[in-house]
Design brief:
Layout (H helix, E strand, L loop, with lengths): L15 H4 L3 H15 L2 E2 H8 L3 H13 L3 E6 L7 E5 L1 H13 L8 E2 H10 L9 H7 L7 H13 L2 E5 L6 H7 L8 E4 L1 E4 L2 E4 L29 E4 L3 E4 L11 E3 L4 E3 L2 H4 L4 E4 L9 H14 L1 E5 L5 E5 L3 E6 L9 H5 L3 E4 L5 H14 L8 H9 L11 H16 L7 H11 L23 H12 L1
Length: about 450
Amino acid sequence: MTQDPLLAVPLEPESIEQTGLSETTLEHLILKILYFRGELYGQDLSNAIGLKFSVIQDIVETLKLQHQVVVKRSLGMGSVGAVLALAEAGRARAREHLEANQYSGPAPVPLAQYVELVRQQKHRDGWLTKESLAYALRGMVVTERLLSQIGPAVSAANSMLIYGKPGDGKTYLIESLGNLETSLIYLPYAIECQGNIIQVYDPIYHHAIEQEEPSVLTISLAPGHDRRWVQCKRPFIVSGGELSLDMLDLRFNTTSKVYEAPFQLKANNGIYLIDDFGRQKATPAEVLNRWIVPMERRVDYLSFLTGGKMTVPFEAFLVFSTNLNPASLGDEAFLRRIQYKMLLRGPAENEFTHIFEKFCGQKQIPCPPGLVARFIDRHYRPTGKPFRRCHPRDVLSHALNLIHFEKLAPELTDELLDRAFESCFVQEQEDRPAEESRLVIPALEPAADYCQTVSAASAS
Protein backbone atom coordinates (compact mmCIF):
# COMPACT_ATOMS: atom_id res chain seq x y z
CA MET A 1 0.00 0.00 0.00
CA THR A 2 1.54 3.28 -1.11
CA GLN A 3 0.77 6.94 -1.35
CA ASP A 4 -0.75 7.85 -4.71
CA PRO A 5 1.52 10.57 -6.18
CA LEU A 6 -1.56 12.20 -7.71
CA LEU A 7 -3.21 12.69 -4.31
CA ALA A 8 -2.55 15.90 -2.43
CA VAL A 9 -0.34 15.87 0.66
CA PRO A 10 -1.15 18.50 3.31
CA LEU A 11 2.04 20.53 3.56
CA GLU A 12 3.43 21.72 6.86
CA PRO A 13 2.34 25.30 7.61
CA GLU A 14 5.12 27.86 7.70
CA SER A 15 3.12 30.50 9.56
CA ILE A 16 0.14 30.92 11.86
CA GLU A 17 -1.84 32.26 8.92
CA GLN A 18 -1.27 29.04 6.96
CA THR A 19 -2.66 26.95 9.82
CA GLY A 20 -6.03 28.63 9.32
CA LEU A 21 -6.28 29.06 13.09
CA SER A 22 -6.15 32.18 15.22
CA GLU A 23 -3.19 33.02 17.43
CA THR A 24 -5.55 32.88 20.41
CA THR A 25 -6.61 29.30 19.59
CA LEU A 26 -2.98 28.17 19.45
CA GLU A 27 -2.10 30.03 22.65
CA HIS A 28 -4.92 28.30 24.53
CA LEU A 29 -3.82 24.93 23.17
CA ILE A 30 -0.17 25.48 24.20
CA LEU A 31 -1.23 26.30 27.77
CA LYS A 32 -3.48 23.23 27.98
CA ILE A 33 -0.76 20.92 26.61
CA LEU A 34 1.76 22.20 29.18
CA TYR A 35 -0.89 21.95 31.91
CA PHE A 36 -1.51 18.26 31.25
CA ARG A 37 2.03 17.20 30.29
CA GLY A 38 4.11 19.29 32.65
CA GLU A 39 7.66 20.14 31.56
CA LEU A 40 8.38 19.80 27.83
CA TYR A 41 11.26 20.63 25.53
CA GLY A 42 10.26 23.19 22.95
CA GLN A 43 10.57 20.55 20.23
CA ASP A 44 8.37 18.14 22.20
CA LEU A 45 5.78 20.90 22.51
CA SER A 46 6.03 21.33 18.74
CA ASN A 47 5.45 17.59 18.25
CA ALA A 48 2.48 17.61 20.63
CA ILE A 49 0.76 20.48 18.84
CA GLY A 50 1.71 19.13 15.38
CA LEU A 51 3.30 22.35 14.10
CA LYS A 52 6.84 23.53 13.45
CA PHE A 53 8.34 25.28 16.45
CA SER A 54 9.03 28.29 14.25
CA VAL A 55 5.25 28.67 13.80
CA ILE A 56 4.51 28.81 17.53
CA GLN A 57 7.77 30.44 18.64
CA ASP A 58 6.39 33.99 18.83
CA ILE A 59 3.45 32.77 20.93
CA VAL A 60 5.82 30.97 23.31
CA GLU A 61 7.99 34.09 23.63
CA THR A 62 4.92 36.21 24.40
CA LEU A 63 3.81 33.74 27.08
CA LYS A 64 7.29 33.91 28.60
CA LEU A 65 7.16 37.73 28.69
CA GLN A 66 3.74 37.51 30.37
CA HIS A 67 5.27 35.16 33.00
CA GLN A 68 2.83 32.41 32.05
CA VAL A 69 5.58 30.11 30.75
CA VAL A 70 9.03 29.73 32.28
CA VAL A 71 12.26 28.09 31.12
CA LYS A 72 13.44 25.39 33.52
CA ARG A 73 16.70 24.62 31.75
CA SER A 74 18.13 24.86 28.24
CA LEU A 75 20.40 23.04 25.81
CA GLY A 76 21.55 26.40 24.48
CA MET A 77 19.52 26.18 21.24
CA GLY A 78 16.93 28.82 22.06
CA SER A 79 13.39 27.98 23.14
CA VAL A 80 13.24 24.92 20.87
CA GLY A 81 15.91 23.27 23.05
CA ALA A 82 14.63 24.69 26.32
CA VAL A 83 12.53 22.86 28.88
CA LEU A 84 9.29 24.83 29.17
CA ALA A 85 6.76 24.72 32.00
CA LEU A 86 3.82 26.74 33.24
CA ALA A 87 4.23 29.42 35.86
CA GLU A 88 1.44 29.80 38.40
CA ALA A 89 -0.18 32.51 36.26
CA GLY A 90 -0.04 30.15 33.28
CA ARG A 91 -1.65 27.34 35.26
CA ALA A 92 -4.46 29.65 36.32
CA ARG A 93 -5.00 30.77 32.72
CA ALA A 94 -4.92 27.15 31.48
CA ARG A 95 -7.65 26.20 33.97
CA GLU A 96 -9.79 29.02 32.57
CA HIS A 97 -9.37 27.66 29.04
CA LEU A 98 -10.18 24.13 30.22
CA GLU A 99 -13.63 25.42 31.18
CA ALA A 100 -14.25 25.96 27.44
CA ASN A 101 -12.91 22.53 26.42
CA GLN A 102 -10.25 20.08 27.54
CA TYR A 103 -8.84 19.26 24.11
CA SER A 104 -5.03 19.06 24.30
CA GLY A 105 -4.09 17.07 21.19
CA PRO A 106 -2.54 18.20 17.90
CA ALA A 107 -3.85 21.52 16.64
CA PRO A 108 -7.18 21.11 14.86
CA VAL A 109 -7.66 21.65 11.14
CA PRO A 110 -10.14 24.32 9.99
CA LEU A 111 -13.25 22.87 8.37
CA ALA A 112 -12.44 24.51 5.02
CA GLN A 113 -9.04 22.76 4.82
CA TYR A 114 -10.65 19.44 5.73
CA VAL A 115 -13.33 19.77 3.05
CA GLU A 116 -10.72 20.54 0.39
CA LEU A 117 -8.50 17.55 1.15
CA VAL A 118 -11.38 15.05 1.45
CA ARG A 119 -12.55 16.04 -2.04
CA GLN A 120 -9.01 15.62 -3.38
CA GLN A 121 -8.70 12.14 -1.85
CA LYS A 122 -11.71 10.70 -3.66
CA HIS A 123 -11.07 7.61 -5.75
CA ARG A 124 -10.34 8.53 -9.34
CA ASP A 125 -12.13 6.96 -12.30
CA GLY A 126 -10.60 3.62 -13.23
CA TRP A 127 -8.92 3.08 -9.87
CA LEU A 128 -10.32 -0.45 -9.47
CA THR A 129 -9.37 -3.43 -11.64
CA LYS A 130 -10.92 -6.89 -11.73
CA GLU A 131 -7.57 -8.37 -10.68
CA SER A 132 -7.25 -6.17 -7.59
CA LEU A 133 -10.85 -6.89 -6.59
CA ALA A 134 -10.35 -10.66 -6.98
CA TYR A 135 -7.21 -10.43 -4.84
CA ALA A 136 -9.08 -8.55 -2.11
CA LEU A 137 -11.72 -11.31 -2.09
CA ARG A 138 -9.13 -14.10 -2.05
CA GLY A 139 -10.48 -15.43 1.25
CA MET A 140 -13.72 -16.33 -0.56
CA VAL A 141 -14.62 -18.60 -3.44
CA VAL A 142 -15.39 -16.03 -6.12
CA THR A 143 -17.13 -16.46 -9.47
CA GLU A 144 -16.95 -14.28 -12.57
CA ARG A 145 -20.59 -13.40 -12.05
CA LEU A 146 -19.92 -12.13 -8.54
CA LEU A 147 -17.03 -9.93 -9.70
CA SER A 148 -19.18 -8.50 -12.48
CA GLN A 149 -21.97 -7.75 -10.01
CA ILE A 150 -20.00 -6.04 -7.30
CA GLY A 151 -17.14 -4.51 -9.31
CA PRO A 152 -18.95 -1.48 -10.79
CA ALA A 153 -20.53 -0.64 -7.41
CA VAL A 154 -17.17 -0.68 -5.63
CA SER A 155 -15.54 1.31 -8.41
CA ALA A 156 -18.25 3.99 -8.23
CA ALA A 157 -17.91 4.03 -4.41
CA ASN A 158 -21.28 5.69 -3.98
CA SER A 159 -23.98 3.52 -2.37
CA MET A 160 -25.10 -0.11 -2.57
CA LEU A 161 -27.71 -2.44 -1.09
CA ILE A 162 -26.62 -6.07 -0.84
CA TYR A 163 -29.35 -8.52 0.15
CA GLY A 164 -29.94 -12.25 0.33
CA LYS A 165 -30.54 -15.14 2.68
CA PRO A 166 -28.69 -15.44 6.02
CA GLY A 167 -25.41 -17.32 5.87
CA ASP A 168 -24.50 -16.52 2.27
CA GLY A 169 -21.56 -14.26 3.13
CA LYS A 170 -22.87 -10.74 2.59
CA THR A 171 -21.03 -9.24 5.55
CA TYR A 172 -17.87 -11.23 4.85
CA LEU A 173 -17.95 -10.10 1.23
CA ILE A 174 -18.13 -6.41 2.13
CA GLU A 175 -15.59 -6.74 4.94
CA SER A 176 -13.19 -8.31 2.43
CA LEU A 177 -13.24 -5.03 0.50
CA GLY A 178 -11.12 -3.69 3.35
CA ASN A 179 -8.30 -5.79 1.82
CA LEU A 180 -8.24 -3.66 -1.32
CA GLU A 181 -4.76 -2.33 -2.00
CA THR A 182 -5.68 1.33 -2.24
CA SER A 183 -3.77 4.53 -1.74
CA LEU A 184 -3.12 5.94 1.71
CA ILE A 185 -5.04 8.99 2.83
CA TYR A 186 -4.66 11.77 5.38
CA LEU A 187 -7.26 12.56 8.00
CA PRO A 188 -7.09 15.16 10.77
CA TYR A 189 -6.83 14.43 14.45
CA ALA A 190 -9.50 17.09 14.95
CA ILE A 191 -11.52 19.73 13.10
CA GLU A 192 -12.26 23.28 14.27
CA CYS A 193 -15.59 24.85 13.31
CA GLN A 194 -17.38 27.81 14.87
CA GLY A 195 -15.09 27.60 17.90
CA ASN A 196 -15.94 23.92 18.46
CA ILE A 197 -13.49 21.00 18.39
CA ILE A 198 -14.57 17.79 16.65
CA GLN A 199 -12.33 14.75 17.15
CA VAL A 200 -12.07 12.73 13.94
CA TYR A 201 -9.12 10.36 14.32
CA ASP A 202 -10.14 7.19 16.13
CA PRO A 203 -7.48 4.47 16.61
CA ILE A 204 -10.26 1.86 16.78
CA TYR A 205 -11.19 2.48 13.13
CA HIS A 206 -8.18 4.28 11.67
CA HIS A 207 -4.96 2.36 11.07
CA ALA A 208 -2.21 4.96 11.15
CA ILE A 209 1.09 4.63 9.32
CA GLU A 210 3.80 5.38 11.87
CA GLN A 211 5.80 8.52 11.23
CA GLU A 212 9.06 9.46 12.96
CA GLU A 213 8.74 12.60 15.05
CA PRO A 214 11.47 15.27 14.88
CA SER A 215 13.71 15.47 17.94
CA VAL A 216 15.67 18.36 19.40
CA LEU A 217 18.85 17.11 17.73
CA THR A 218 17.35 16.11 14.36
CA ILE A 219 15.41 19.08 13.09
CA SER A 220 14.79 18.79 9.35
CA LEU A 221 14.62 21.86 7.16
CA ALA A 222 12.93 19.93 4.36
CA PRO A 223 9.18 20.51 4.03
CA GLY A 224 7.11 17.61 5.34
CA HIS A 225 3.44 16.79 5.65
CA ASP A 226 1.25 18.73 8.05
CA ARG A 227 1.48 16.78 11.32
CA ARG A 228 -2.05 17.81 12.28
CA TRP A 229 -3.06 15.12 9.79
CA VAL A 230 -2.37 11.43 10.29
CA GLN A 231 -1.54 9.20 7.33
CA CYS A 232 -3.60 6.01 7.39
CA LYS A 233 -5.30 3.31 5.37
CA ARG A 234 -8.71 4.09 3.95
CA PRO A 235 -11.16 3.41 6.80
CA PHE A 236 -13.65 0.57 6.96
CA ILE A 237 -16.39 1.09 9.56
CA VAL A 238 -19.33 -1.19 10.42
CA SER A 239 -22.54 -0.42 12.32
CA GLY A 240 -25.10 -3.11 13.10
CA GLY A 241 -28.42 -3.41 14.84
CA GLU A 242 -27.20 -1.14 17.64
CA LEU A 243 -27.19 1.87 15.31
CA SER A 244 -29.55 4.70 16.27
CA LEU A 245 -30.12 7.99 14.47
CA ASP A 246 -28.44 10.06 17.19
CA MET A 247 -25.21 8.13 16.52
CA LEU A 248 -25.14 9.72 13.05
CA ASP A 249 -24.74 13.23 14.45
CA LEU A 250 -22.08 15.00 16.49
CA ARG A 251 -21.81 13.60 20.02
CA PHE A 252 -20.88 16.06 22.76
CA ASN A 253 -18.74 14.89 25.68
CA THR A 254 -19.98 16.85 28.67
CA THR A 255 -16.71 16.28 30.55
CA SER A 256 -14.17 17.25 27.89
CA LYS A 257 -16.61 19.60 26.09
CA VAL A 258 -15.33 18.19 22.81
CA TYR A 259 -17.48 16.71 20.02
CA GLU A 260 -16.87 13.24 18.60
CA ALA A 261 -17.33 12.77 14.87
CA PRO A 262 -20.13 10.38 13.83
CA PHE A 263 -19.38 7.14 11.98
CA GLN A 264 -19.94 8.52 8.47
CA LEU A 265 -17.47 11.37 9.07
CA LYS A 266 -14.85 8.93 10.36
CA ALA A 267 -15.49 6.78 7.27
CA ASN A 268 -14.86 9.55 4.72
CA ASN A 269 -12.65 8.36 1.82
CA GLY A 270 -13.39 4.78 2.91
CA ILE A 271 -16.29 2.34 3.37
CA TYR A 272 -19.22 2.58 5.78
CA LEU A 273 -21.25 -0.63 6.15
CA ILE A 274 -24.66 -0.63 7.83
CA ASP A 275 -25.07 -4.33 8.58
CA ASP A 276 -28.38 -6.04 9.43
CA PHE A 277 -30.21 -3.15 7.80
CA GLY A 278 -33.85 -3.13 8.86
CA ARG A 279 -33.11 -4.37 12.38
CA GLN A 280 -32.03 -1.02 13.85
CA LYS A 281 -33.99 0.74 16.59
CA ALA A 282 -35.18 3.26 14.02
CA THR A 283 -37.44 2.08 11.20
CA PRO A 284 -35.86 1.38 7.78
CA ALA A 285 -37.71 4.42 6.41
CA GLU A 286 -36.19 6.66 9.11
CA VAL A 287 -32.70 5.32 8.45
CA LEU A 288 -33.03 5.72 4.68
CA ASN A 289 -34.49 9.19 5.09
CA ARG A 290 -31.37 10.15 7.06
CA TRP A 291 -29.21 9.25 4.06
CA ILE A 292 -31.19 10.91 1.24
CA VAL A 293 -29.23 14.19 1.25
CA PRO A 294 -25.77 12.62 1.74
CA MET A 295 -26.34 10.07 -1.05
CA GLU A 296 -27.68 12.62 -3.55
CA ARG A 297 -25.63 15.73 -2.76
CA ARG A 298 -22.49 14.14 -1.27
CA VAL A 299 -22.68 16.47 1.75
CA ASP A 300 -23.98 15.99 5.27
CA TYR A 301 -25.30 18.43 7.84
CA LEU A 302 -24.26 18.00 11.48
CA SER A 303 -25.60 19.94 14.48
CA PHE A 304 -23.93 21.50 17.51
CA LEU A 305 -25.64 21.77 20.90
CA THR A 306 -25.87 25.52 20.38
CA GLY A 307 -28.12 24.98 17.37
CA GLY A 308 -25.41 25.80 14.84
CA LYS A 309 -24.74 23.45 11.92
CA MET A 310 -21.70 22.43 9.94
CA THR A 311 -21.69 21.18 6.36
CA VAL A 312 -19.20 18.37 5.77
CA PRO A 313 -18.35 16.29 2.70
CA PHE A 314 -19.82 12.80 2.43
CA GLU A 315 -17.29 10.75 0.49
CA ALA A 316 -17.78 7.30 2.03
CA PHE A 317 -18.90 4.24 0.07
CA LEU A 318 -22.19 3.58 1.87
CA VAL A 319 -23.24 -0.09 1.91
CA PHE A 320 -26.47 -1.51 3.32
CA SER A 321 -26.54 -5.26 4.00
CA THR A 322 -29.75 -7.09 4.89
CA ASN A 323 -31.39 -10.51 5.14
CA LEU A 324 -34.81 -8.94 4.66
CA ASN A 325 -36.80 -8.55 1.46
CA PRO A 326 -35.98 -5.07 0.07
CA ALA A 327 -39.69 -4.50 -0.55
CA SER A 328 -40.23 -4.54 3.22
CA LEU A 329 -37.59 -1.87 3.80
CA GLY A 330 -39.15 1.01 1.93
CA ASP A 331 -40.98 2.07 -1.19
CA GLU A 332 -39.46 2.33 -4.65
CA ALA A 333 -38.70 6.03 -4.25
CA PHE A 334 -36.53 5.32 -1.21
CA LEU A 335 -34.71 2.36 -2.73
CA ARG A 336 -34.11 4.26 -5.97
CA ARG A 337 -31.76 6.58 -4.12
CA ILE A 338 -29.43 3.67 -3.36
CA GLN A 339 -27.33 3.54 -6.50
CA TYR A 340 -26.59 -0.21 -6.76
CA LYS A 341 -28.64 -3.23 -5.65
CA MET A 342 -27.13 -6.69 -5.51
CA LEU A 343 -28.84 -9.98 -4.70
CA LEU A 344 -26.25 -12.40 -3.34
CA ARG A 345 -27.68 -15.81 -4.18
CA GLY A 346 -26.70 -19.07 -2.55
CA PRO A 347 -23.75 -20.91 -4.11
CA ALA A 348 -24.09 -23.40 -6.93
CA GLU A 349 -23.04 -26.99 -6.24
CA ASN A 350 -19.55 -26.60 -7.72
CA GLU A 351 -19.01 -23.43 -5.67
CA PHE A 352 -20.29 -25.14 -2.51
CA THR A 353 -17.91 -28.06 -3.11
CA HIS A 354 -14.95 -25.72 -3.59
CA ILE A 355 -15.83 -23.82 -0.39
CA PHE A 356 -15.94 -27.13 1.49
CA GLU A 357 -12.56 -28.24 0.14
CA LYS A 358 -11.01 -24.82 0.76
CA PHE A 359 -12.12 -24.84 4.38
CA CYS A 360 -10.65 -28.33 4.80
CA GLY A 361 -7.35 -26.93 3.54
CA GLN A 362 -7.52 -24.04 5.99
CA LYS A 363 -8.10 -26.47 8.86
CA GLN A 364 -5.36 -28.79 7.55
CA ILE A 365 -7.58 -31.86 7.44
CA PRO A 366 -7.69 -34.05 4.29
CA CYS A 367 -10.85 -34.12 2.20
CA PRO A 368 -11.06 -37.57 0.53
CA PRO A 369 -12.27 -37.70 -3.10
CA GLY A 370 -16.02 -38.08 -3.37
CA LEU A 371 -16.66 -37.14 0.27
CA VAL A 372 -18.41 -33.84 -0.50
CA ALA A 373 -20.46 -35.35 -3.34
CA ARG A 374 -21.76 -38.11 -1.05
CA PHE A 375 -22.47 -35.53 1.67
CA ILE A 376 -24.57 -33.52 -0.81
CA ASP A 377 -26.38 -36.66 -2.00
CA ARG A 378 -27.40 -37.53 1.57
CA HIS A 379 -28.32 -34.12 3.00
CA TYR A 380 -29.17 -31.73 0.18
CA ARG A 381 -30.36 -33.50 -2.93
CA PRO A 382 -33.21 -35.57 -1.40
CA THR A 383 -34.90 -32.59 0.30
CA GLY A 384 -33.80 -29.79 -2.01
CA LYS A 385 -32.13 -28.08 0.93
CA PRO A 386 -30.49 -24.89 -0.40
CA PHE A 387 -26.72 -24.48 -0.21
CA ARG A 388 -25.40 -21.72 2.04
CA ARG A 389 -21.84 -20.46 2.04
CA CYS A 390 -21.63 -20.84 5.81
CA HIS A 391 -22.60 -24.54 5.81
CA PRO A 392 -19.13 -26.00 5.06
CA ARG A 393 -17.57 -23.92 7.83
CA ASP A 394 -20.27 -24.83 10.34
CA VAL A 395 -20.37 -28.56 9.57
CA LEU A 396 -16.58 -28.93 9.49
CA SER A 397 -16.19 -26.99 12.74
CA HIS A 398 -18.61 -29.40 14.41
CA ALA A 399 -16.79 -32.38 12.88
CA LEU A 400 -13.46 -31.14 14.25
CA ASN A 401 -15.03 -30.62 17.67
CA LEU A 402 -16.19 -34.25 17.62
CA ILE A 403 -12.68 -35.40 16.64
CA HIS A 404 -11.12 -33.44 19.50
CA PHE A 405 -13.69 -34.48 22.12
CA GLU A 406 -13.81 -38.19 21.25
CA LYS A 407 -10.09 -38.43 20.44
CA LEU A 408 -10.84 -39.74 16.95
CA ALA A 409 -8.39 -40.07 14.09
CA PRO A 410 -7.99 -36.70 12.29
CA GLU A 411 -9.89 -37.72 9.18
CA LEU A 412 -13.31 -36.99 7.73
CA THR A 413 -15.77 -39.84 7.21
CA ASP A 414 -19.36 -40.04 6.04
CA GLU A 415 -20.54 -40.95 9.54
CA LEU A 416 -18.64 -38.05 11.13
CA LEU A 417 -20.13 -35.53 8.69
CA ASP A 418 -23.62 -36.95 9.28
CA ARG A 419 -23.26 -36.40 13.02
CA ALA A 420 -21.85 -32.91 12.48
CA PHE A 421 -24.67 -32.02 10.09
CA GLU A 422 -27.30 -33.20 12.58
CA SER A 423 -25.85 -30.98 15.34
CA CYS A 424 -25.78 -27.94 13.03
CA PHE A 425 -29.43 -27.82 12.05
CA VAL A 426 -32.74 -27.98 13.86
CA GLN A 427 -34.40 -31.34 13.29
CA GLU A 428 -38.14 -31.81 12.82
CA GLN A 429 -39.66 -32.82 16.15
CA GLU A 430 -41.29 -36.26 16.27
CA ASP A 431 -42.96 -37.89 19.26
CA ARG A 432 -40.82 -41.02 19.27
CA PRO A 433 -38.01 -42.33 21.49
CA ALA A 434 -34.37 -41.88 20.63
CA GLU A 435 -32.46 -44.66 18.89
CA GLU A 436 -30.86 -47.15 21.24
CA SER A 437 -27.26 -46.41 22.16
CA ARG A 438 -24.75 -47.93 24.58
CA LEU A 439 -25.20 -46.63 28.11
CA VAL A 440 -22.30 -44.81 29.76
CA ILE A 441 -21.81 -45.71 33.43
CA PRO A 442 -19.12 -43.44 34.92
CA ALA A 443 -16.44 -44.86 37.19
CA LEU A 444 -16.41 -43.88 40.86
CA GLU A 445 -13.26 -41.84 40.23
CA PRO A 446 -11.96 -40.10 37.10
CA ALA A 447 -9.40 -41.94 34.99
CA ALA A 448 -5.83 -41.87 36.29
CA ASP A 449 -4.49 -39.75 33.44
CA TYR A 450 -7.25 -37.18 34.09
CA CYS A 451 -6.32 -37.03 37.81
CA GLN A 452 -2.67 -36.55 36.93
CA THR A 453 -3.56 -33.73 34.55
CA VAL A 454 -5.68 -31.97 37.19
CA SER A 455 -2.99 -32.41 39.85
CA ALA A 456 -0.30 -31.02 37.56
CA ALA A 457 -2.46 -28.05 36.63
CA SER A 458 -3.22 -27.34 40.31
CA ALA A 459 0.46 -27.53 41.24
CA SER A 460 1.41 -25.06 38.53
